[in-house]
Design a protein that fits this description.
The chain folds into two domains: 232 residues, no CATH class; 39 residues, no CATH class. It is mostly helical. The longest helix has 66 residues. Helix 1 runs antiparallel to helix 2, helix 1 runs antiparallel to helix 5 and helix 3 runs antiparallel to helix 5.
Length: 309
Amino acid sequence: MVALWITIGLVVSTLCVSILGATFSVVGIGALFSGALLAVWAMAGSLELAKFVLAAYVHQRWANLNLAFKSYMVFAIVVLSLITSMGIFGFLSDAYQSASLAMDSGNIKIEAKKTQLANYKNEIARINKSIDEIPDARISRKMKARTEADPMIQSLNLKVEGIEKEISEANLDMLEIKKKVGPLIYVARAFNMDIDSVVKYFILIFVSVFDPLAICLVIAMSQAIESRKRKNLVATENQATAASAVTPLVDQPVIPEVPVAPAVVAQANVVTANTHLHGGDDQEMLLMRFTDDPKEEISESKDKNGNAV
C-alpha cells in the first residue's frame, strides 16, 4: 500500500502540475488563435479536463476495454498531449518574445541615437576642417569663418550632449530589460550560440516534460488512492471477521435439574448390574424405565406404610 504522505504529495503535485500546465496551454493556444479568444479558451479548457479524466479512466479500466476502443483512447490522449505541448510552447514563446522585443526595440533606439550622434560629430568635424583649410595668410577670413561657425558648432554640441544623455538613459533601460533574459544571455555566451536558439531548446525541454509528467501524476494518484481503498476494505473485512469470531454465543435456557430420590438411584444401579448380566433386553427395559415419570417410580417402590420395598 502507498504511504499516506506519498498519496497526499501525489494529489498536491498532480493538482499543481495539471492546473498550471492546462493554464499555460489555454493561454498559449489563445495567443496562437487570438481572433476568437474566448471560444478558443473554452475549447482548450474542456479538452484539458477531458484528457486527464480519460487518462485516469483508461488506466483503471484497461483490462476491460476492447482493442479498438482502447486504441482510440490512447490515440486521443497522445494527440491532446501534443496540443497541450503546442499551447505551452506558444505561451513560453510569447513570454520570451515580450522581453526580447523590448530588448530589440531598445537596441534599435540606441543604435539610432548613436548614428545621430555620429552625424553631429561628423558635422562638427567637417566645419572645423573647413575652417582649418583656410590659409593662415588670410587670417581675417579665417577669423570671420570661425565667428560664423561658432554658433553652429555650439548648437551641434548641445545636440550631442542631449543625445549622449538619451543614450545613457536608454542603456539603463536596457539593463532593466536584460535582467529578464540575463541567464539566457549568459548561457548563449557560454555555448557560443545566439539567444534565440538557446530559448528554443529550453522551451522544447520544458514542453517534453510538462504535460507527460502531468498525465503520469494523474495515473499515479489514481493508483495510490485505489490502493489505499483496497487496503482499507481488507482491513474492514478482517475486523468484521475478528468481531464475529469473538461474539459470545446466545445464552441457552437452563433446564433445572429434577431431584431424584435415593431409592430411584439404588434401583438404577441394580438395573445397570442386571444389564451387564443379561444383555440387550435389559438395556431396553432400562431405557423404558427411565423414560417414566420419577414420581411414579417413587410411588411404586413404596408400600402402603410408606416404607421402601
